[in-house]
User: Fold this.
Amino acid sequence: MKLHTLMSCLHDFSVMPAENPEIESIEMDSRQVSAGSLFVCISGFTVDGHDFAKQAAAAGAAAIIAERPLEVDVPVVLVKDSARALAALADFFYGQPTQHLHLIGITGTNGKTTTSHIVNEILREHGHTTGLIGTINIKIGDETFDVKNTTPDALTLQKTFRRMLDSNVTAAVMEVSSHALHLGRVHGCEYDVAVFTNLTQDHLDYHKTMDEYKRAKGLLFAQLGNSYQHNRVKYAILNSDDEASKDYIMSTQATVITYGIDTKSDISATDIEMTGAGTSFTLVTPFDSVRVTMKLAGKFNVYNVLAAAAACLVSNVPLETIVRVIERMQGVSGRFELVDGDQDFAVIVDYSHTPDSLENALQTIRQFATGKVYCVVGCGGDRDRTKRPEMARIAAQYADCPIFTSDNPRSEDPLAILDEMAAGVTGEQYEILPDRKEAITRAVSAAKRGDVVLIAGKGHETYQIIGTTVIDFDDRLVAKEAMKHRSSTQQDS
Assistant:
């Protein structure tokens, strides 16, 4: 594509060079530039792409997008906001791929990953070739790829959507983070369905206040089209049990479908029964009501299923298909995942890294635990500090044996993080073991028949970040190793 043709999608550039080279690719990392690349200078949190313009030119860049004049020997297009320009350029360069996909976006504090995986499985059962973008990975059909962020940057997104189309994907599901919405990473994404799970405290290190956090989430619904396309109806799927939904109803012109348990909703669950083996409830829809028995445990998973069912119903999936998939779902990696080591007590690994998600997990465990509840939990460094005492308070409130440990301390002192956690506990017993492996081993070693060990915070993650070092660390593998050691010790005795 010629530079001038590509630039036709922009309407705010101030300088257009006379040169009109062929553009073979778009890059925002100078190390990825090759002959014919258009290099876009992005001012990030840690580096400024403008500082790498000369390296990009030397690597063969055909042209550069920048916010200020540059001393380079290739054409430079000046724009007011290179990040905004990148989203438009990527969308146009890759043929506006989301306009040819049925795209479902899911936002909220908790439940995005589980809900997106349920939706993906239902759409596959219905006959779609699907794409999935989320916290755990990217899936295109049966292929799986690693991810760096819950929602990738605009360039990676549009490139991924193009790859999906080329792989005959017809429907795509993606988690949409508040960071991505605030930073404009999803500009250019043509969503057909937008889903809201819930809003609880998280990411206040970035958004500063809950109002700002709520506003960022709301952008998904405010950007959900603004015309009545009767041949392509837009749907906002909102949790009526969450107060934030009232604001999101006001901010979208899309057709609103509500789901909930405690308030009157379009789609709801009644007569909920929970055990350690799963959950049963009556799924009530405008079309029919049906009894559902699923392997997923907890009220929070009922919400996830309701959200997924609503998204799929408006995507023209029959109710019987939805129920069939829900009933056979085994769960999602690191989400209330049972770790089996032939032990006579339960070990659960869960990605509960917010106060609300930790409380949900522990409340669910309390409903089926016949013995003591152990909770191994920490808080990440260089992240929202205000939730640390609250996480500890919840662990001490619901667990018989809370053990506070390190999560991903990053650049912070692990002991300082633990001190801030402990400040939230008054009059309750707890133990502090900074070494996460030692903490998990302690809980597993102490558990007896009927007890439950919850290892919270990291879920599917297979690493731990200490300082600037990333080490291999998988809660599930550590727990299995501890169970194996416990078993061999008992046999020796």
About this structure: The CA atoms of residues 269 and 283 lie 5 Å apart.
